[in-house]
Amino acid sequence: MRPTSKANRLLAALPRADFDLLKPHLQNVAFGVDTVLLRSGDEIDQVYFPSSGAIAFMVDMPDGHTVATTLMGPEGAVGVLAVLGPSRSPVTATVRVAGTALQIPVPKLQSAFARSAAIRHVLHVHVRTQLLQLQHVAACNALHSVERRMGRWLLELHDRVAADVLPLTQEALAQLLGVRRTTVTLTMSRLRAAGAIRSERRGFIEIDRNRLENVACECYAVMQARLGRSYDEELSAVPRAAAPLQADATVPERKAASGPKE
Q1: Model confidence pLDDT, tens digit, residues 42-83
Q2: E runs forming strands in the chain
C-alpha cells in the first residue's frame, strides 16, 4: 500500500513538496487493541501518524495504577517530541481502538523537520495543542466525578469509532480513569440507568450519544473545540513560501525499529 497523507490531519496539512520529504520513509502499519507503540522510559525511535484508531497516553504510577492523559487519533502523532533530539518516552502509548498509522524512523523525521518550515509549523501546532489538552485533563481529573469523566472518555473514543458500539472492556476503562474495576462497574450502572449506555457485553459497550453528552463534563466540549476549526486553521497557515535549509542537512541515523512494540 502506498503511503497517503489524507487520513492524518498533520500530514494532510502539508504542501505536496514538504510531504514528499517524508513519503519515501513512511511505512503503513496496522495495530491491534492493547498494542504498545511506546513504553514509558524507552528511547523513541519511531514516530506514528495515525490514520485511524485511538491510542491512549498512559502514565504508570509506582503503585501499579495507570491513568490516561489523552487520546490520540488521526488528528495528531505519537512520539513527535523526538524531533527535538534523543528522547525517552514519558508515557506508555497503548492502542485502545485498533487502527492504522504511517510510521517513520526518528532520524528521517528530524532531517525533514530541519529542512521544511511547513513540517516544523504543523508539528509545533500539534505539540502546543497537546500541551493545552494535557493541562485541561489534569484539571478535569482533579475537579470532576468519575461518572462525568467516564462520559468524556467514552465520547472521545466514540469520535474515533464509526459505530455506537465501542470495543472497550471495563478493565481498559479502569486504566483510562485511574480507578478500580469495581468503581467502573458501579459508574457504568449509573450511566445505564441514565440511558447513556444502552447495553454492555464482554469487550463492547453500546452508547447513546445524545444522553452521554448530557452526562459528560464540559471538558469534552472545550477540548473538541480546540481540535475543531481553529486547529485546522492553524494547521493550514503553513509557511509555503519559506525556503528550506540546505538539501544536505541531515541527522545521524540510528537503527530503526521494525514495527510497534508488543
Answers
A1: 999 999 999 999 999 999 888 777 888 889 999 999 999 899
A2: 27-31, 36-38, 46-50, 54-60, 66-72, 92-97, 99-105, 165-166, 197-201, 204-207
